[in-house]
Predict the 3D structure of the following.
Amino acid sequence: MTPLLSLENVSKSFFDGGRRIVVLDHVFLDVDAGVSVGVYGARRSGKSTLLRLAAGIALPDSGAIRFEGRDVARMSSRERGRLLRREIAFVSATDWRANPGESVVDHVATSLGSDGVTMREARRKAMRVLHLLDAAESAEESMGALSLTERARVLLARALAREPRLLVLDEPALLPSLGDRDRFYALLRGVAREWEIALLVASEEMTALQGLGVFVSIADGGLVSTESRATVVSLPGRRRHAAERVGQ
């Protein structure tokens, strides 16, 4: 069976002045439909790069990223945009953007604006998701009045409103209370099971990844998994220096 998402021999580097920083080095990762995968790594370990590649936001230097067998790198920017709107949703707390005067329900509803639905239908779908996330009481509140806990749920609601098949989350709940974090991630896992959505969640906190089906760690440009199942196939990349002088 073709995996929902597949990273095949993927490498990614960035340039810092005259130095090439190797972030991902020949990474393999398969995620089946409906499976929840947690990625653990320290800050600046490459988690965000891995997730942005998986979501089709960034493209690899080499290797292939496939969604249901389709090579994302070979898609046009328009096709990748359609993939992000209809099949994959990406959530990151650092990407929070909102008009302070906009209501919560309208903010969630506008995520459906490019799909040709009316605002009335978009608001109906938005309210359904807000109810599902126990956030309906905040529907008419101003976005500028939300607490950090409420923001995390609204970010999730905006992603779920499009009914994606893969939900990619990069440190989505930077919440001050451990209890709030636990409740958020329990809610996330429950929704994913109910809607049969595949999850790819990255965090530098182990507690955020508890209860997910498969666990992977990232370091030195490679992935390591303790899983023996075929759901995730992750191989450590061939180790290179973290930074290489260009031309050497």
Observations:
- The longest strand covers residues 19-31.
- The first helix runs from residue 47 to 54.
